[in-house]
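Hi there,

I know you've been waiting on this one. I reran it after we fixed the sequence typo, so this is the corrected version. Both the input and the resulting structure follow.
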Amino acid sequence: MNKNNIHFEVKMTSEVSKDDELSFLELFNFIFKEDMNSLWFDWKYRQNIYGDSIHVFAYDDIKLIGIRCFWRNDLNNQISYQPCDTAVLEEYRKMGIFSQMSKLALEKSKGSFIYNFPNENSLPANLKLGWQIYKKRYLTLSLKENDLKNEEDYIDEEYLKWRFIGNPNNKYFYSNGKGLSYLLLKRENGIYYYLGNFNPAYNDHFERSSFGMIFKYVDEKTLLYNIFKNKSVTVYYDNRLDSKALPNIPMNKADYF
């Protein structure tokens, strides 16, 4: 291992070759013990309704040792990216490779808005690098239909078709409300997470939920949070060139859903 041999390439999705893609998938699957394939890569990146994402590749000579993506996932007609699909081979960690990939991605995304949903382990590192907390959300049990009627959670049709109907890896469910349907992600043992509401004309693309408990994230601390300490923190890095109001960041934009 020679640090002088380490170099980086930054590419937009339209510049990513098939060989780049296959190397990306090989490294991703090796590190995360997953089995993602080109169908997933095509859906998430090449068929993205917003346009190109940003991909940073780290190499030791010709060997791919790290990847970092800024996934195009716009907010309120604002060009926006969400960091995800990041991996560095274990023997190359603590060498500043992650930080350098992040720096290059931020340079490439100048003029856009960056947001993320880090876990408790990575949150301190985000804040240290200049990210700011947008909102803390707390898990609660939804006991009545009115709990699921937030207009901010409405999923427009184009996004619904690409992000959820077209997703080759996740299966989604729905529950009917009055004039709207509720998009749900099933966890286990009859537990569902509420992702948003949508036009019932698209119900046939999802499976109707069976009896179970529906959980959602809210802005205020809840009894459930006091017991289980389950929360989600949304952070942002304002990489725009002019100051504007922050765009709304709904939970259904999270990569892990």
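Quick highlight: The first strand starts at residue 6 and ends at 12.

Best,
R. S.
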